[in-house]
Amino acid sequence: MSTPSPRSLILDLLSTLRGESMPVGALVSAGALFGIADNGMRVALTRLLSRGLVIRDERGRYRLGPKATALNERVVSWRRLEERMRRWEGGWIGVHLGGLTRGRGLAFASAERPLRLLGFARMAKGLALRPDNLRGGVAAVRQELMVLGLDTAALVFAMGEFDGGSEERARGLWDVAALRRGYARSRRELAASEARLARRSEGDAMIESFRLGGRVIRELVHDPLLPEALVPADERRAVVTALRRYDRTGRRAWAAFLARHGAPHVAVALPIDGARAVAHA
Predict the structure, then answer these.
(1) Where are the beta strands (DSSP E) in the chain?
(2) Cα separation of 169 and 226, whole Å?
(3) How far apart are CA 28 and CA 159, in angstroms?
């Protein structure tokens, strides 16, 4: 698995502290575990500070800044996937990007990221859609798309009553077989790693839990949350259940390290590579 960037490692570690702070020494020591040089961590910290993604308190310790709140909320949303969904009645939510094609090339290109994060797939040129099965319906999806960076000139609206061929094509826009294979692989790998971590050294257990947990989180953050009619919901729920259990094991792997550096380590979330789930979506 790839090495996290200094930026994503810092954001992830700070996101586990629930508003508490961490000394720079702890951040640098964590970076060393992943082969990141002291200077690389300090430079990244300075840049994050200048952008308001982290803040420094009066003791010289660091915590997440207000500008990182939306990112962090999106990362931890894997715990509440089922709460984000509602019964699907067969309708669709569409996004039309036609208004972004003239003189708004950058906005058009940047639409891909928020649309992918909310599970939209391309139906036709300039048109993306997803099942209307997220809580809050069109209004809530529109708001979240804008928060994630979709240009306000894009049209977000309800769709329905396709002809038979178009309905079939819409339902086939997602690679359901690949999703299901991913669910099965994640469950297997989480179970195997959970059994293995107790036998690993402290450093190896910290690294493995960060990397594997982060990969599964990225998959869940990018999951299109398709309705039961398209994907068996119990398979996705099983991954969330397995990751919650793995989270507890990962906390134990990181607890002694955090305690040595005077950082909170009781009932904190697993430090895993979640920042990349959104930052590199």
Answers:
(1) 54-56, 62-64, 92-96, 121-124, 127-131, 155-159
(2) 15
(3) 50
Owning domain of residue 145: 91-159
Is 143 part of any domain? yes
Say if 185 falls within a structural domain.
no
| Class of residue 80 by CB neighbours under 10 A (exposed 0-12, middle 13-18, buried 19+) | exposed
How large is the greatest C-alpha to C-alpha distance in the chain, in angstroms? 64
Tell me the β-bridge partners of 62.
22, 56
Residue 96 in domain? yes
pLDDT tens digits, residue range 184-240? 999 999 999 999 998 999 999 999 999 999 899 889 989 999 999 999 999 999 999
- Residue 259 belongs to a domain: no
CATH number of the domain enclosing 137: 3.30.70
What total of structural domains would you count in the chain?
1
| Burial tier of 189 (Cβ tally within 10 Å: 0-12, 13-18, 19+) | middle
Signed CA dihedral, 11, 16, 22, 28: sign only = negative
